[in-house]
Amino acid sequence: MKTRLVKSNNITLGGGSPILVQTMLERPFYAYDNEYLEKLKYHGADIVRFSIDGTYDKDELKAFIKNSPVPLVIDIKADIKNALFALDSGIDAVRINPSLITSKDAEEIIKCAKDRGAIMRIGTNEGSTRGESAINLIKKTLEITERMNFTNIVLSLKASDPESTLALNRDLSSRFDFPIHIGLTEAGGSIQSAVRSTYVLSELLKDGIGDTIRYSMAADEINEVIAGVELLRVMGLREPYLNLIVCPSCSRATFLTGEFLPEVQDDLYRIAYNHKKPITIAIMGCPLNGIGEASSADVGISGSKDNVVIFKKGEIVLKETSKRAKDALLEVVKSFY
């Protein structure tokens, strides 16, 4: 379902624009540097959200916003001063929970967001509505935005139950034409969330609902981003720069893919992002079957305990010792471009 277009300096959502992947920082913003934000970016993060609790250095926050390589969203609870300062510092978007702030506070944030050309996400979780209908909370805030002639809005309604989340978002989509951020909250660790969130997100995306997505995981933010990008890839909604084909753990394997993948994964994502040209890379457990099974890969690696082979489109192009496996693979990958 086509939603209206909303924009800030660095974010474009809705109106048929690409679906964006976002994550949320687990720790306070000052625990992260630009190198980590850059890492999130080349793994596929389009938006990074963060929250503030307690005291912080205003100059440090201002620099964090100004120098971030990826668009940021500040998530506030009840203290609107953080949102106002972030908006004045040039942040792209602010997320408010209408169950936690007063109408007067909402008006102040809306005015500031409107003056700064920022996006405002109006979102609540089913468990934080304090007895009021989640839809009614959204409607009340939209009455304020309509009165103030502010339309740069993204909506979100989440629950920890998959079926409730589906129902809430289908209802939300039927009522309003603003872009919708979708996700399943409190979805568990990497494995639990990968299963539960994929079910919810894929169902909504097949219905044409969802302009930005998040896999909520009790895990590293990188895992959330990779999961989001992969879902969009397999659904034909995004063509990422890197497609990895990797053998599972297997007693037939002579090359331990589960140990090798973490060694090279970050480098492969970084190289692919920097060149901005799609590449398929295979990491296969044994050269006997692996090379043939991954013959469609642009570049691949397989081998044994002591030696590895690097291949392109099923043809071996390099043989190396296992000690040089990582360097050899990266050299061939770089030559692809």
Question: Any descriptors?
Answer:
single chain, alpha/beta, TIM Barrel, Sulfite Reductase Hemoprotein, domain 1, 2 domains, five-stranded mixed beta sheet, 11 helices, elongated
Describe this structure in words.
- By secondary structure, this protein is of the alpha/beta class.
- The protein has two domains: about 5-235, Dihydropteroate synthase-like (TIM Barrel), CATH 3.20.20.20; about 240-335, Sulfite Reductase Hemoprotein, domain 1 (2-Layer Sandwich), CATH 3.30.413.10.
- It is about 40% helix and about 20% strand.
- The strands form three sheets. The protein has an eight-stranded parallel β-sheet with strand order 8-7-6-5-4-3-10-9.
- Helix 3 packs parallel to helix 4, helix 6 runs parallel beside helix 7 and helix 7 (about 190-205) runs parallel beside helix 8.
- The longest helix has 19 residues, at about 255-275.
- The two termini are about 35 Å apart.
